[in-house]
Amino acid sequence: MKTIYVKDLKKGDTILNEVFLVSQVEKARDKLGREYLKVILSDKTGKIEGKIWSDILEKIDFDIIKPEKLLSVQAKVDEYKGMLQLTIQCVNQVDESKLDEYISSSMYNPEEMYNELFNVVNSLSDKILQRILLDILSDNVIKRKYMYWPAAKSLHHDFRSGMLQHVLEMIEIANSMKRFYPEINYDLLYAGIILHDIGKLEELGAGVASIDYTKQGSLIGHITLGVMIFEKFAAKYPDLNQDSKLHIIHMILSHHGSYEFGSPVLPSTLEAVCLHYIDNLSSKAKLVQTALQQKNPITGFTDYNKWMGGVILWDGGGSSVDNR
Description:
- This protein has 324 residues and is an alpha+beta fold.
- The chain is built from eleven helices and nine strands.
- It has helices at residues 54-57, 110-122, 127-138, 140-148, 162-175, 186-195, 200-203, 215-219, 222-234, 242-254, 270-291; strands at residues 14-29, 35-43, 46-52, 70-80, 83-93, 204-206, 211-213, 301-305, 311-314.
- The chain starts with 13 loop residues before the first strand and ends in a 10-residue tail after the last strand.
């Protein structure tokens, strides 16, 4: 039975036989050339780095420290460069029959979120586009992945059902624009939101605790894969307005917003521009929310965050955050 979670750890805590899931293992060497392990441990509330120094490494079974394995850990919670980390003294392998407590997941029920997405599609006025999206979301392979896939290998929404939560966040942001931007074609904007990252279902291979790129993901990338998925389903509906089809393809291709970040074209319609900035708002807000989990508990500041331009983030004076 799990008794303490990553989000509850504090500097100076001693952990006795607490179970975590191994997310990542990396060999390294200290200043004297001695080998040690850097281990990323996780549970459903977050991740923390642990170190197994050379003197301890000699006494344990290295073969049990593998990604997607559960470990019972004895450790001391220390602080290094303003971030908590574990100094691990002992590890033991444990039963893996129940993993729910150890997988970082959305705080929202994936089936309820998927039903919410269906409700959005059922509200569209363009019935041909509606049928295409329902066809895509009802596909058994797509549904299984879309409901549980992370939105990224790392950075934002990189947890179970992260992509689905990201999409619903974007839809909520889009809804807030209706009063002041009634000229937006919201059928197309919703379609772009739902489809913009669908290529990640083929780009990313998600194991229990690890996320990595597939061969298709490495060689083609999710933007092109997303267009391919959409075109495959749209081909069954020749009566789809061809300008609408072109518009959706353009939104998928341009949603990263710049050549520098992988878009082969720049956003060139009101809906494409909105899609890009809505996507950016959702992803950056989640990135900062997650980074603040590692803030200095006294000052409220984080370490330098290169993904936000090298800025040091601040919690604003004590606001609480949740990374799920």
